[in-house]
């Protein structure tokens, strides 16, 4: 059996370079997800009705979380925060006495293309640097 060996000069520099790209891509992923999430949040805010009551309004409490990671990949949560989530579910799904006025899922569907465009812009900016 023949043995072969190879020697690469400068391989450590290449390894360090690719490691640094990996770290930078993680940061860009987070920024892109946040930008996409903000587009969805804008759409959700535009779809939810604002009451005249003196209380925390759902429109003002739609947030985008920091990027998180699960077994399925990175993601952000977009929607009403805990302060108003209990009321938002009544609008989204309706009740026995009130029809649904969906704004969370509808906003995500309608804002999908804008979110993708915003994410693409973040990646293109990062690639051009």
TrEMBL record:
InterPro entries: HK97-gp10_tail (IPR010064). It comes from the Bacteria. Pfam families: HK97-gp10_like (PF04883). This is HK97 gp10 family phage protein.
């Amino acid at each position: 059996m023949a043995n072969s060996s190879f020697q690469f000069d400068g391989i450590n520099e290449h390894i360090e370079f690719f490691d640094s790209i990996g770290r930078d891509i993680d940061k860009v992923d987070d920024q892109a997800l946040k930008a996409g999430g903000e587009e969805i949040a804008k759409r959700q805010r535009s779809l939810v009705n604002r009451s005249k009551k003196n209380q925390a309004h759902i429109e003002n409490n739609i947030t985008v979380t920091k990027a998180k990671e699960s077994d399925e990949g990175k993601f952000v949560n977009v929607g009403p925060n805990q302060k108003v989530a209990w009321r938002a579910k009544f609008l989204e799904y309706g009740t026995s006495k009130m029809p649904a006025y969906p704004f969370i899922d509808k906003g995500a569907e309608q804002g999908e293309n804008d979110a993708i465009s915003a994410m693409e812009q973040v990646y293109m900016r990062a690639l051009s640097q």
